[in-house]
Design brief:
The complex is a heterodimer. By secondary structure, chain A is α+β, with helices and mostly antiparallel strands. The longest helix of chain A has 10 residues. The radius of gyration of chain A is 16 Å and the shape is elongated. The relative contact order of chain A is 0.12. By secondary structure, chain B is α/β, with parallel strands linked by helices. Chain B has one domain: P-loop containing nucleotide triphosphate hydrolases (Rossmann fold, 3-Layer(aba) Sandwich). Classes of the chains: A alpha+beta, B alpha/beta.
C-alpha cells in the first residue's frame, strides 16, 4: 500500500514507516495513495536519519506547479485543512476545516499557521 | 408553588435558547454583505459592512445583533445576522492583481481571506443556528464550493434557505438553482435593488422560528 509523506511528499511503496514516521523529514502524517503504480514509489534505500530539512527536500524534489498535481483543489481526501501552494495561494479543504478542532487564528508572514491552542483544549474538555 | 415547578423554571432558564444566529454564507461576490446591509437597514437602521466588486472584501465575520423581522402572518423572529467571508476552495492573490491591487497587498489580502474562510467555517461549526446560503443566479450553481457547503450544512442539520441573488441581471436563472438543490427552499432576490426581498423575510420567519 503506497503512502506519501505529508511533510516532504516522498512516496513510499509500503506502510513500513507509518508507525515511526517519515525517515526523510520525521513527519508522522501520511496520505494513502490510491491506485499509485508501485514502480513510481521510492526505490532507493532510505537513509536512517534525515539528511536535509523537510523544506529543502520539498524545494529539491517538487518543481513549481507540480505540488498542485498532488494536492488537487478542494480534495476532500487531503489531510490538510489549508495547503500553502506559495505565499498568497492557498487550497482550502472545507470539510477538514469544519471537522478539525484546529482554529486558525492567523496566517503568518512566512505562511505558517497559527493555531488557537486554548480553544482546542477547551473543546476537548467540553466533550 | 412546588419544588418541581421551581426546578422546571431553573432548568428552562439554564437551557433557554439564545437569540438564533443566522449565518449568511456563500462564495465570494455572491452578495452576502449586500444582503446583511439590507436586512440591517430594513429592520434596525444600521449598516453591517462594506461592499466591493473585488472578491473577498469581507475578510472577518461581522455580527449584527438583535434584529427583529416580522412576517405578514403577524409572527416575528429576533436574530443575530452573521455576515461571513466568502467561502472558497482556493484563494489566489493573482485574482486581486486584476483589480489593480499591488502584489504585496494582494498577498496580504489572500492571507486575510484564508483566515476569513477558516473563521467562517469555525462559526458554522460552533455558533450558527441557521444559514442563508447566497448563490449568484447568473453563475453555474453546480460549482464545487456550493455542493460542498450545502453538504456540510445538511450534515450539521442546520435549517437553510438558498437565496438566488442578482435576479436583476439578464443572465440570472433561479430555476437552475432550484434544479440543483430541490431539497431546500430557493428564494429569488436582488439584494441590491430589493426585488422580492419580502419573500426572503417571509421564508426566514417561517424557517428560523
Amino acid at each position: 500500500m503506497p503512502h506519501r509523506c505529508a511533510g516532504c511528499n516522498t512516496l513510499f511503496p509500503d506502510a513500513r514507516y507509518l508507525k515511526d514516521g517519515c525517515p526523510v523529514c520525521g513527519s508522522g502524517k501520511f496520505i494513502y495513495e490510491k491506485g499509485t503504480d508501485r514502480k513510481e514509489t521510492r526505490s532507493q534505500k532510505v537513509p536512517e536519519k534525515p539528511l536535509i530539512t523537510a523544506e529543502k527536500q520539498k524545494e529539491k524534489e517538487i518543481p513549481d506547479g507540480q505540488q498542485e498535481s498532488v494536492h488537487k483543489e478542494g480534495d476532500p481526501d487531503s489531510i490538510e485543512s489549508i495547503h500553502i501552494l506559495e505565499p498568497g495561494r492557498y487550497d482550502l479543504n472545507l470539510s477538514r476545516l469544519i471537522e478539525s478542532d484546529d482554529l486558525v487564528v492567523k496566517m503568518g508572514q512566512d505562511d505558517n499557521y497559527r493555531l488557537d491552542l486554548h480553544s482546542m483544549i477547551r473543546q476537548k474538555r467540553k466533550k | 408553588m412546588g419544588i418541581s415547578h421551581t426546578l422546571s423554571r431553573i432548568l428552562s432558564g439554564l437551557f433557554q435558547k439564545k437569540t438564533a444566529r443566522i449565518g449568511i454564507y456563500g462564495p465570494p461576490n455572491a452578495g452576502k454583505t449586500t444582503l446583511a446591509n439590507r436586512i440591517a437597514d430594513d429592520w434596525s437602521g444600521t449598516v453591517a459592512g462594506n461592499t466591493s466588486e473585488v472578491p473577498h472584501e469581507t475578510r472577518r465575520a461581522v455580527r449584527t445583533g438583535n434584529i427583529t423581522i416580522s412576517g405578514s402572518n403577524g409572527k416575528s423572529i429576533t436574530i443575530d445576522i452573521v455576515d461571513t467571508p466568502g467561502v472558497t476552495t482556493r484563494v489566489d492573490y493573482k485574482e486581486f492583481l486584476e483589480y489593480g491591487i499591488e502584489r504585496e497587498d494582494a498577498i496580504t489580502r489572500a492571507r486575510e481571506a484564508t483566515e476569513g474562510v477558516a473563521e467562517a467555517m469555525h462559526w458554522l461549526r460552533e455558533d450558527i443556528d441557521g444559514v442563508i446560503y447566497m448563490i449568484d443566479a447568473t453563475l453555474d450553481p453546480f460549482a464545487q464550493v456550493n455542493i460542498m457547503m450545502i453538504g456540510i450544512i445538511e450534515s450539521r442539520k442546520l435549517p437553510v434557505i438558498i437565496a438566488a441573488n442578482k435576479i436583476d441581471l439578464p443572465d440570472a436563472s433561479p430555476q437552475r438553482i432550484r434544479t440543483a438543490f430541490p431539497q431546500h427552499p430557493v428564494v429569488p432576490v436582488s439584494c441590491l435593488e430589493g426585488t422580492q426581498i419580502e419573500s426572503l423575510y417571509e421564508e426566514m420567519v417561517k424557517k428560523f422560528r
